[in-house]
Amino acid sequence: MPATTVPCQYRTGRTLGSGTYAIVKEAIHIKTGKYYACKVINKKLMEGREHMVRNEIAVLKRISSGNKNVVTLHDYFETAHNLYLCFDLCTGGELFDRICAKGNYYEGDAASLVRTIFSAVSYIHSAGIVHRDLKPENLTRAEDADIMIADFGLSRVMEGGIGGEKLNLLTEICGTPGYMAPEIFKKTGHGKPVDVWAMGVITYFLLVAGYTPFDRDSQQAEMEAIIAGDYKFEPHEYWANVSQTAREFIQWCLTIDPNERPTADECLGHKWLASATPHFVPDPESPTGGPTDLLPHVKKAFNAKGLWRKAAFSIRALNRMTTLAGSGYHSEAQRLREDVASYKEESEKEKMEDASITHQHQSDSGPSSPASPTHSRNTSAAQAAAQKEAAKKQDDISVDNQNDRSLETTMAKMKLSEKDKELERKAEKQ
C-alpha cells in the first residue's frame, strides 16, 4: 500500500532526552491533547540501516498493547527529514532514582519488581520475541504506574528455528556487555535464554544497586568473567542482608549453559517469586523480626557508581557506533560526533505541526512499513538490496562477517581460541 501524505496529528513539545542516534521529544496529539514520548530519528543517520527501524517497528507492532508492562508503540510516521515513533510518555523518573527516593526498600520490593519484569519477559517470549538488551536503563515507568520494558531496538522476531523456544541461530554480538550472556560472546547461537541471563544480572543489581556481578576493570576481563560465570556475592556487608533464596534464584538465572538455563515461566515459578510470604533476612534491631531495610546500602552503592555507570554507557555507545561505521576508530569517532550533533540539531528544529507527514500508522504493508528516506527511492531495487545487505553485515556483526575487527568480536575469538587450546591440552593428558 503506497504511503499517503496527510496533515500531522501532533504538535511538538519539549525535548525529553537524547540517545545514541535519536532525540526524544514530547508529542501532543492535537485532537485529544494526550502526551506521548516521540523518538525522532534523523534519516541521514539511518542511511543504509533502515532495516533496523523496520525491525523495531515489526517487533513493537507484534507486542504493543498486549501487556501493561511493555511499552506501547502508538504511532509512527515520517517527514522528509525524520522518522517518528510515538510511545507511552513515562515521566516517573529512572528506576533507581525512585528507589532511592523511597523511605525504605526491602527484599520483597525487589522480588516484586523482578516478578513484574519477568511477567513481561514471559509475554514477550510467548509472542516470539527476544529483547536482547534488558538492563535497568531500559526499565521505565509512568508516574505512579507499573514498571515497563522499553527500547526494542535490538530485539528480534524469532519464528521456531533450531532449538525451538530456547535456541535459535542469532549469532551477532549485541547488547550491553555487563548484561550479555556467555553464548553471545561465544557466537554459538543465542535466543530467548539471553533475556533470562540478563534478568539474573538485573536481579543482582536490584539487590545491591550500583554494580553487576561481572563488574571488572576492563571490558576483556568482564567478558572473560561472563564466559566463565565468575562472580561472587560480595561485599559481604551488603549480601548479608539478602536471603539465600534470592541468591539461589540469581544463580539459577546465571546458568552458563543456555540449554540448562530456566525459561521466563520457570523463573516465575521459583519460590523467591512464587511464595506468598516474602523471603528476607530479619533485621536484628527489629522487635518484630521484620525484614532488613536494604535502602542504606543501595543508596551508598548507587551514588558511588552513578557517574561511572553513565560514563561507561556513553563510551560503549560510541564504541558501538564506531564499529557500525567501520574501521579507523579515532577519525570515525570524531566524524560520528560531528555528524550526530549536526543531525540531532536538524531533528530538533523540525516542528511536527508544520511538517508534511507521510503517515503509515497501522499500515498493512508489514515490517517494511516505514518508507525509506527520499534519497533511497532513486536507487534501483538491486542497488537498494545490496546496500541493505552490506549495512546489515556491519550492524549485526554477524559470524559471517570475517572483516569484523570490533573489540567485542576480537575478544570473543581470542577467548574461544584459548578454550580450544585448553581442551586440546586436557585431551592430550587423558
TrEMBL record:
Looking up SUPFAM superfamilies in the UniProt record yields: Protein kinase-like (PK-like)
Pfam families recorded: Pkinase (PF00069)
Positions with biased composition (Basic and acidic residues):
341-356, 389-407, 415-430
Keywords, in A-Z order: ATP-binding, Kinase, Nucleotide-binding, Transferase
Chain segments carrying region Disordered = 341-430
All copies of the Protein kinase domain together span: 10-273
Q: Where is the composition biased (Polar residues)?
A: 357-380
Say if the entry is tagged with keyword Ion transport: no
Q: Where does ATP bind?
A: K39
The record's GO molecular-function terms, alphabetically, read:
ATP binding; protein kinase activity
What is the recorded name of this protein? Kinase-like domain-containing protein
The source organism is Lentinula raphanica
